[in-house]
Amino acid sequence: MPTFDLSVTPLREFNAALHSVANGDNDTAFEVVNPRGAHALAVGIDKPLSVDVRGSVGYYCAGMNDGGSVRVHGSAGPGVAENMMTGNVTIEGDASQYAGATGRGGLLVIKGNAASRCGISMKGIDIVVHGSIGHMSAFMAQSGNLVVLGDAGDALGDSLYEARLFVRGSVRSLGADCIEKEMRPEHLEILSGLLDRAGADAKPGEFKRYGSARKLYNFNIDNADAY
Amino acid sequence: MCGIVGLFLKDKALEPQLGALIADMLVTMTDRGPDSAGIAIYGGGAAGRAKITVQSANPGADFAGLAEALKADGIEATVTVKSTHAVVDVPAEKLDAARAGLATRPGLRVMSAGESVEIYKEVGLPKDVLARFDIAKMGGTHGIGHTRMATESAVTTLGAHPFSTGADQCLVHNGSLSNHNNLRRELVKAGMRFETQNDTEVAAAYLSNEIAGGKDLGQALEGALDDLDGFFTFVVGTKSGFGVLRDPIACKPAVMAETDQYIAFGSEYRALVNLPGIETARVWEPEPSTVYFWDHEKAA
């Protein structure tokens, strides 16, 4: 398994090695030591590789991930797995702001807490946070699922589109046009699948579902004067 | 964009290395702010003495005869020149008189005053600014540093942070304010003087004005949440410690680390990675709209 030590090897060399893996190559499992908070680690993966990062990372780790499996044995800075297309990213520690921002697919699992704006503008990504999330999470979230075993901060789901939000703990406040919704069998099934895949110790019945009231993102002729 | 670093030592054995540790943290933040840098180091204050740090664009001309001029005013002073800055050491009871005297001398700007603080700031890459003032050789109890990416006003020495807000007190800022022109007008009416068009200078003057009106620093920072419009992570240096405040939206980053030996602040985690024991430190992000203080005098 190729190991890269970022205290001696430039980050660019590591990312280039990930990008130069060809279909059928034997070496598809990589390890990184001494990440020391580096930014843009393991970005742009477009093959089914795996990366284990031994330490904490900076901004945009695993950004644009398409098919890779990235595990950070530490915490992550802002924007982890931003714009993920497919694949898996797991953070053993905490994640900073806008985790999973604008993600289009794949699964992001955060074992610790995530900070503000978790899942901002989600476009199909699934995010499971074992801990709590900060304020303005799922802002303008369009599709995908955000599952939170802990609590959510202020303004959850502000200006929400059709992403599904499941929170087990308390929600400090709901954002504009975000409301609590009934849990139906299909939601429990989705939630069950996600909790399984995320290794989360919780039962679907413990969660509440939140979604869009659909009054903000749909144009209503009666409100024409407001625009 | 700007980068902020701060280090508050709990372990006295680290005090001789304070400057070197902060310098290393600051250079790591160069990417966040390459155009200017500044640093406030607290330490070395002798009982009964006080210090004023002054700056000049023509140090040779403006620092010449400084000690003699103060002596003529009845103030025994020693002047230590460091490039474009000079530290004027005076008896503590003469601090106000010395400060007033220095402020009238042509070409001089007062950067800081107090019993233990020294502020150095200049345009240029952080590593060059730090080398110019030999920061890496300084010891102390705590310090804050700033790298600047100018957004609201010009790249000048005086536009660099930290800004002095009072005796032994200073402010650094990551973010940008939007109502600073309005606030400046009101503060001018209240008697505050401004040297630049800088938004952070307005925030510093706002805090000074609130404190002059009777609030303590904590209350002044609470007021800032209501009265300042814009983005900010503020780190405030005080005689015995430092404070941190993030605005309610908290877009601007802030990371902290604590061990038995220190409490550290950085705009990014990578500013902290060379600190001793960082692998097992408690690392967290301060909450928005919450005033935090760490204080030698109150620490156990």
Explained architecture:
The complex is a heterodimer of chains A (227) and B (300). Chain A is mainly β. Chain A has a single domain, classed as Pectate Lyase C-like. Helix content of chain A is 10%, strand content 25%. Chain A has 2 helices and 11 strands. Chain A has helices at residues 11-19, 185-197; strands at residues 3-5, 29-33, 50-54, 66-72, 86-91, 107-110, 123-129, 143-148, 164-167, 178-181, 208-212. In chain A, strands 1-2-3-4-5-6-7-8-9-11-10 form an 11-stranded mixed sheet, covered by helices on one side. In chain A, strand 1 (3-5), helix 1 and strand 2 (29-33) form a beta-alpha-beta unit. The mean pLDDT of chain A is 96. By secondary structure, chain B is of the alpha+beta class. Chain B folds into 2 domains: 3-44 and 120-295, Aminohydrolase, N-terminal nucleophile (Ntn) domain (Glutamine Phosphoribosylpyrophosphate, subunit 1, domain 1, 4-Layer Sandwich), CATH 3.60.20.10; 47-115, Alpha-Beta Plaits (2-Layer Sandwich). In chain B, 25% of the residues lie in helices and 32% in strands. Chain B has 8 helices and 16 strands. In chain B, the strands form 3 sheets. Chain B has a 7-stranded antiparallel sheet with strand order 7-2-8-1-14-13-15, covered by helices on one side. In chain B, strands 9-10-11-12-16 form a 5-stranded antiparallel sheet. In chain B, helix 6 packs across helix 7 and helix 7 (199-212) crosses helix 8. The longest helix of chain B is centred in the last third of the chain and has 14 residues, at 199-212. Chain B is globular. Chain B starts with a strand and ends in a 5-residue tail after the last strand. The relative contact order of chain B is 0.18. Chain A binds chain B through residues 36-39, 56, 58-59, 75, 77-78, 94, 96-97, 115-116, 135-136, and chain B through 249-251, 253, 255, 268-273, 283-285, 288.
